[in-house]
């Protein structure tokens, strides 16, 4: 079995590649990554680059010829490639739509053309939901993205759904809630707090710090994705004659039609979530949340990091609230548990201790990223704040 992992040099992608090679001894893994600021070949340490079942391709996910050539070699495609930071999307939003939406369209087009692909896993995000209107949040929660990043991911999410309905691609959409763990860029709150504490620098908290998220250790996310692959998460439905071949024209007539539903937002009814069963049927694409079912506030995380690293909580400093802030996320992942028997195994406290230990042991890895810990954002009053 060959697995193509787009964005495989990034945080979740590199952790997934490492676990897939360890847990699937029959698998070959091809990684496609543009090595932007958030991806690095240094994430393939520990001899991974010498593994004969691993190969790396440097390139952009919007390169249709390259993507098609790689997809054509594989049975499974796991699509991580995306720009994925809320604050950066506020000051540089066009790149997010190019990578997240057009890049996803490029991959979906290739899957539509290549009949050898039996499974396409699209990695979406809980950010597509916006602030929780009900708790916990299941897959039928309305999509109300609150930032350019979240709206780009919502567009990609709905684009994949439309390709499943139109071309019958064997897609599964997974919406992980907030991930953390080793190899995560310092722009994200957990590693930013951890590395700030290790360096005896202030831990900057947006607003009151009451914003709460459902936190999932990256190992639990990777285990969930492996379960989808092991169980062939989306059995190919009976397709109209020529449906997959029609995808060959997707760069022409089909692309604008597919982009319309994605750009226009998602239905907010149960139909937006897809069926509970893990198989495509009648054009519907299964959608699954991945989360722990527990919300932890940013303030609590800052204080936990200080306590676990032996630093004073006086290092916690409050700054202005981030534009597009989501107040609370908490996942209902019961649909995925019922379909695949998965449950998270790493508690937040245990995962945070493991994450602190990793960053403490890998200081050269994160020191080179320190200058990117904070992103300049212009507030509504015209002031520049670093988030």
Relative strand content: 15-25%
| CATH-level-2 architecture | 3-Layer(aba) Sandwich
The structural class is alpha/beta
Largest sheet: 7 strands, parallel
Based on CA atoms alone, the radius of gyration comes out at 20 Å
If strands are numbered along the chain, what order do they take across the biggest sheet? Answer: 3-2-1-4-5-6-10
How do the helices and strands line up, and which of them pair or pack?
Blueprint: E1 2-6, H1 11-23, E2 28-33, E3 54-58, H2 64-71, E4 76-79, H3 86-91, H4 93-113, E5 119-123, H5 148-167, E6 171-176, E7 178-180, H6 189-198, E8 203-206, E9 212-217, H7 218-230, H8 243-246, H9 250-263, E10 287-290, E11 295-297, H10 298-309, E12 316-319, H11 334-340, H12 348-361, H13 363-367, E13 376-378, E14 384-386
Parallel strand pairs: 1-2, 1-4, 2-3, 4-5, 5-6, 6-10, 7-9, 8-12
Antiparallel strand pairs: 9-11, 13-14
Helix pairs in contact: 1-7, 2-4, 4-5, 4-9, 5-9, 6-10, 6-12, 10-12
